[in-house]
What does this fold into?
Amino acid sequence: MRENAGEDEVRRTANNRSLSRSRSRVWFNINENKGQYEMDVKKFVEAARMGEVTVSFEKINDGGLRVMPCTLNRALSGDRVPEVYEINEESDNIAVWCIDKEAWRSFRIDTVVDWEITV
It folds into this structure.
């Protein structure tokens, strides 16, 4: 089942992280086996290929929050994203072109708190 969280709707995951959504469509899937919401990787990748997205995630090293503007769009990356760039939907990580650092960065899918299309 796919959930599109509304502007002031809040979902709570099994590990008690709040997921609040605002400004744009942000898609999460509910994993009925785990009883929690998970990032819809396919929707994220589609949005990143179209333009800029902002992803917020918990950093592994210190638990801090990183808010990262990123893309998988060839033009926005200055042709640094290959024309054919496959992301395995079963992977635990996603590599993206980080716009503010002008370098490749990756994040773990299970640490994503929020993401939105940047307009």
About this structure: Strands lie at 2-4, 10-12, 18-20, 27-31, 36-39, 52-58, 65-71, 93-98, 103-108, 112-117.
